[in-house]
Write a structure and sequence with these properties.
With about 70 residues, the protein is an all-alpha fold. The protein is built from 2 helices and no strands. It is elongated, with a radius of gyration of 26 Å. Keywords: Membrane, Transmembrane, Transmembrane helix.
């Protein structure tokens, strides 16, 4: 279609598919069945959730008088 030989396209597809299968097995060996999802989830969630004020007090700030 784009003026490229069909054997180049077939070769590119075969190399890409082989690389994808190799990468899948490599990641499965490193992280296990669900380990990659756990590692990704660990990076997305915060380590701590701080809740020091009641929810309505977040919107009504009053200065403390001494």
């Amino acid at each position: 279609m784009a003026g490229v030989n069909q054997w180049v396209c077939i070769g590119f597809g075969a190399v890409s598919a082989t690389f994808l299968v190799w990468l899948t097995f490599r990641l499965n060996e490193r992280y296990g069945t669900h380990g990659l999802m756990k590692a990704a989830a660990r990076k997305r969630h915060p380590r701590y959730v701080l809740n020091r004020l009641k929810f309505p007090r977040l919107f009504t700030f009053k200065h403390w008088k001494k």
